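Hey,

The postdoc asked me to send both predictions to you directly instead of through the lab channel. I've kept everything plain text so nothing gets mangled by the mail client. Protein one:
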Amino acid sequence: MLHEGIKAFFLAHLEDDFARVSVVEHHTKEHTHGRTDERSYYLCELPEDLPDGSRWKGLHAIGMSINNTQRRKGDEIAI
């Protein structure tokens, strides 16, 4: 249940580029082993209405990472 709540939270806020919440972002780009990896990391304070969040004592923030890999052949894989 916690995973689904975090997923829904980030999907909703990615749509408006985090206009309604405070977010810390970090982006990386690496060229290794014949591929390019671009990663984006997002960290937000724990939402008060996060389903099942109260069971996780000491939880103060939630995060998400997005990995986009492009191989030499032009194939693209988003994870």
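Protein two:
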Amino acid sequence: MTYLIVMCPYCGEIRAIKENQKTALCYKCGRRFRTLNARIVMRSVPSNKVVEIIKYLKTRKGRELLLQTWGREINA
């Protein structure tokens, strides 16, 4: 099974969702959002790499990478 890594459109929290998932619940702000409205950070991530990638994106280097890419910092 493959996943998407997305940012919550309301608070910027990073989370993984299944590729065919239509809505998701943000674990940080508690709001439900449509996955079409979320910013996709990575596509087609294998299930054994999801946790490792999310952990990296929540580190200082990962936040800097996202800031350089989109000009917006995620909330840690």
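Summary for protein two, as requested: Residues 62 and 68 are 10 Å apart (CA to CA).

Thanks,
C.
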